[in-house]
Design a protein that fits this description.
Helix content is 48%, strand content 19%. By secondary structure, the chain is of the alpha+beta class. The strands form 4 sheets. The chain has a 5-stranded mixed sheet. Strands 3-6-4-9 form a 4-stranded mixed sheet. Strand 11 and strand 12 form a beta hairpin. Helix 2 packs across helix 6 and helix 2 runs antiparallel to helix 8. The longest helix is centred in the C-terminal third of the chain and has 40 residues. The chain is flat. The chain starts with a helix and ends with a helix.
Length: 245
């Protein structure tokens, strides 16, 4: 049991809430183990699959996807940013948010108002779009779960071909980004032009369909487990708030 759990248990004493919180934590931990196993299964299959495909095209990413880049309103103009979700704002993804997520990204720390979206012409990322960080921390990959936004360090791989989702997610997770940018003592970075020109190996349609039939059910399980853990964490916070208040 980690120190945080020990602190909570000590604070609650013999309160029945201890058992409830313990059950929630146990369920979350079990789900996390399942998530890791599913992600590994998906990537292992991709590596095997990509080594066996015989017919493919090598294209620029921008010839396969409509690649858009996010934007950030001026930070000194705080009226564009909000910290609580409302009907009048949209989740705005940062690289930190991507790092705090598994395959799918559900939550963000900040939101942009609808006025900001219109005024700065910020591109909306549709649900089930693969996104990639390419500045500061290069190579974080997530899938959006609803209409979202992002900052300018994140590229969006938009496509109308839903069958590409599992393959694209794994391809970008497995891609070697070291040749796209320059490395310094501060950070590794590349630019949007490099992302649009990066090589994308596109198998024939029948192979894409094959990987989709394998990968999509796994991604669906990952989505369900992540969503369940989000709800469990929210429930846990409600219990803690109720007790400590």
């Amino acid at each position: 049991m980690n120190s945080k759990k020990l602190l909570i248990k000590s604070s609650l004493g013999n309160n029945p809430l201890v058992n409830i919180l313990g059950s929630i934590d146990e369920k979350i931990e079990n789900n996390e183990l399942k998530l890791s196993s599913l992600e590994q299964l998906l990537m292992d299959k991709f590596i095997k699959f990509s080594s066996e495909i015989e017919e493919f095209e090598i294209k620029k990413a921008e010839d396969v996807f409509d690649i858009s880049i996010g934007r950030t309103p001026p930070r000194q103009e705080q009226e564009w940013f909000q910290n609580v979700k409302t009907q009048d704002n949209v989740k705005w993804i940062s690289i930190s948010d991507m790092g705090n997520s598994k395959a799918f990204i559900f939550e963000t720390n900040e939101y942009l108002t609808n006025d900001a979206i219109a005024y700065f012409n910020i591109p909306i990322i549709k649900a089930n779009t693969v996104i990639l960080s390419f500045k500061l921390t290069v190579g974080r990959v997530n899938i959006t779960t609803e209409n979202m936004l992002s900052n300018e360090a994140i590229a969006h791989f938009n496509t109308d071909n839903d069958l590409l989702l599992p393959y694209t997610y794994c391809y970008l997770k497995h891609f070697n980004y070291s040749n796209l940018g320059s490395t310094s003592s501060i950070a590794t970075a590349t630019n949007s032009k490099s992302i649009k020109n990066m090589l994308f190996i596109l198998p024939k349609d029948s192979d894409i369909n094959e990987y989709y039939n394998f990968g999509y059910p796994i991604l669906s399980k990952i989505f369900s487990l992540q969503r369940q853990n989000n709800k469990l964490n929210q429930l846990k916070q409600l219990y803690l708030k109720k007790f400590f208040n």
